[in-house]
C-alpha cells in the first residue's frame, strides 16, 4: 500500500500491479484473545479513531436529548412515548 502497488512474481510481462481508486475501511480491537498486535508500519496508512465505552445513563441522556428535540413540535400523545422508546433503544443496543 505504501508504494502504490506490488510486484507480481508469476507474471513476467507485467511485473508491477498498480493500486488505483482503492478505499479501505478496517476495524480492530485491542490485542489479546486471538487478536495480534497491529504494527505501526501498517497503522500509518489509516486514521485511528478510539473511544471509551459509555455508561447506559450517558447513552440514555444522549438518546433522550435527540428524541426530545425531534419530537418538540409533536402533540403530547406522541411525546408520552419517548420514555418507552428510549428503553427499547437501550435494549436493542445492549
Which characteristics define this entry?
single chain; 37% helix; mainly alpha; 4 helices
SSE series = EEHHHH
Strand neighbour order, sheet with most strands: 1-2
Intertermini distance: 37 Å
What is the CA-based Rg, rounded?
24 Å
Share of helical residues? 25-40%
Overall pLDDT metric: 87
Number of H/I helices: 4
- Tell me, briefly, the overall form: elongated
By secondary-structure content and strand pairing, the structural class works out as mainly alpha
Which helices and strands, and how do they pair?
Elements: E1 5-7, E2 16-18, H1 40-43, H2 56-70, H3 76-79, H4 82-93
Antiparallel strand pairs: 1-2
Helix pairs in contact: 2-4
What would you note in describing this structure?
The protein has a domain at 56-93. The two termini are 37 Å apart. By secondary structure, the protein is mainly alpha-helical. Helices cover 37% and strands 6% of the residues. It has helices at 40-43, 56-70, 76-79, 82-93, and strands spanning 5-7, 16-18.
How would you briefly describe this protein structure?
Helices cover 37% and strands 6% of the residues. With 94 residues, the protein is mainly α. Strands 1-2 form a two-stranded antiparallel ribbon.
Amino acid at each position: 500500500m505504501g508504494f502504490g502497488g506490488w510486484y507480481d512474481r508469476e507474471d513476467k510481462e507485467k511485473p508491477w500491479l498498480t493500486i488505483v481508486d482503492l478505499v479501505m475501511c478496517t476495524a480492530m480491537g485491542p490485542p489479546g484473545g486471538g487478536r495480534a498486535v497491529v504494527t505501526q508500519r501498517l497503522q500509518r496508512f489509516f486514521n485511528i479513531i478510539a473511544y471509551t465505552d459509555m455508561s447506559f445513563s450517558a447513552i440514555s441522556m444522549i438518546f433522550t436529548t435527540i428524541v426530545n428535540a425531534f419530537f418538540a413540535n409533536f402533540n403530547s400523545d406522541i411525546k408520552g412515548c419517548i420514555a418507552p422508546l428510549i428503553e427499547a433503544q437501550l435494549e436493542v443496543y445492549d
